[in-house]
Amino acid sequence: MKEKLYIFDLDGTLYEGTDHFDYYADRLSLDVPKEKQHEFWKDYEEMKAGKHQVSIGKAYDVKNDAVLTIDPMSLTVIKAVDWEGNSLDVLAEKYRGKQVKFDFKEMIAIGDGWWLPFVCAVHYGVEDCYPRYVETKAYMSSDQFELEKIPHLKSFLNQLKEEATIVLITNSDEEDVRRLLTELDLDGVFHEVITSAKKPTKTTAYFEELKKKFNIEADEIVSIGDNFINEIAPALLLGMNAVYISEHIDQTEHHNLIQVKRISEWIELMEQSKKRR
Known about the structure:
GO terms for molecular function: hydrolase activity. The chain is α/β, with parallel strands linked by helices and 277 residues long. The chain folds into two domains: 5-16 and 148-276, Rossmann fold, CATH 3.40.50.1000; 19-140, no CATH class. It has helices at 19-29, 37-48, 89-95, 115-123, 130-140, 153-163, 174-183, 203-213, 228-237, 263-276; strands spanning 5-8, 59-61, 66-70, 77-81, 107-109, 165-169, 192-194, 221-225, 241-245, 257-260. Strands 7-6-1-8-9-10 form a six-stranded parallel beta sheet, sandwiched between helices. Strands 4-3-2-5 form a four-stranded antiparallel beta sheet. Helix 1 crosses helix 5 and helix 2 (37-48) runs antiparallel to helix 4. The longest helix is centred in the C-terminal third of the chain and has 14 residues, at 263-276. The protein is globular. The mean pLDDT is 92.
């Protein structure tokens, strides 16, 4: 077994389901002007169905209300359109050759399902989405919400732990992570847990730090996550391996990249590979 370190994301990777995204959208809709709520829900449903210009893997320029198609590896703009999908060639030219910098205030990376209702709400005039995010996290810790656990995940991780180091890196805060790991019955499974990681800004730094700490080569590390910008592109750029979990087929092809719709598919691939060895 060549791989010596596996780095996992948490949200959208180690548990499944989208109910919490819909709950977040529902809470945000309350802050949308009443006359715009119908359009909000229409756009959000189209986003989920892949029928809207706003989609996972793109970026949203808040100031210009523009949707940017970006190269996930170089983070440069390929195309810019307005909310209705009309080309914004002048804006695209302005960005040409420049790497997009995500601050999640004026430039949003739409990396996973959390950002679809967020961007939709911002477009319709909601200035502060954070209180509704906090409400959603509280809902996720209540008896009303049940995480969709992944069958055999714990046993798989424990087996993997015997052969390699497994680390969790997540943007969620420590309290939230402790709760989620307890609910998922994954307490104590990981060798190391890094919370409030500020991905993607600090992703590369964490990867480099772990590479040095465990004294291994980049191609002996695997990053597993559902956010291409946060976990996958930084890994591939460093020469690491990556497993991208997404229902939406990404056009990026790379010899170190595997894409699956859910982590259970990757677990099956790993178990089949182990049987062949």
